[in-house]
UniProtKB/TrEMBL annotation:
Gene3D superfamilies: NAD(P)-binding Rossmann-like Domain. Belongs to the short-chain dehydrogenases/reductases (SDR) family. This is Oxidoreductase. It holds the Pfam family adh_short.
Amino acid sequence: MNSKEHAVALITGASSGIGLVTAKALQQAGYRVFGTSRKTAACADGITMLNCDVTDEASVNNMVTEVLQQTGRIDLLVNNAGVGLLGGAEESSTAQAQALFDVNVFGITRVTNAVLPTMRNQGKGRIVNISSALGFIPAPYNALYAATKHAVEGYSESLDHELRSFGIRVVLVEPGYTRTAFEASLTKPDQPLEVYDSVRAGMEVVMRNGVNAGDAADVVADAVLKAATATVPKRRYTAGKQASQVRFLRRFLPEALVDKSLRKFNQLPIA
């Protein structure tokens, strides 16, 4: 079969963690896979790696042009690139908050906008945006990160309605804690305040324990594959038992109980 007849998948942030595991799962499922990373990464297991900085529009456009030159099509886009930030919301400057949004939200927008003309011309396409359980619940000491994921949720659901008439669907995948190096590479607040030192340190422990007990990255990859291949996709796919439980609690329990449960989980005083 000619390579251009294979379904082509493009996944950002594919050099490690969820992105790499998902890229391998897509390749094993029969996709011709292109992954991106900010730094040069070796191609492996049939995955072609390309350099791309999702905060740089020229870099994004050059990367998409390269994929199209090699394949002539893009059938699936998985927007996975993202960064974290742990600390009190007050501890981050506006510039730091903007930088976070530039990767987690506007990075998705840039790559999506670069791919959409091709998908529209094809008359079909699937976009899977990696969100988080923190995209639908409060996240103390992750307020700015959670805000980016709430933004991704609103953007994705709205865009899905805009694109259905072109044969394109936009789907969310919402992981909970996942066993990757994401926690180790968290951004620290750029204007830390002593008043938050103790509770911030406690939240770091909560997150580390959550990651250590979290789902394997292939649980998320399986959810992405379902979202990518479903004939009639659901609006969102929670990835893993914890994320599913949190969504259930958020949807069906009274707000006061959810509030108390969230504070207990995060080892905050019940007030």
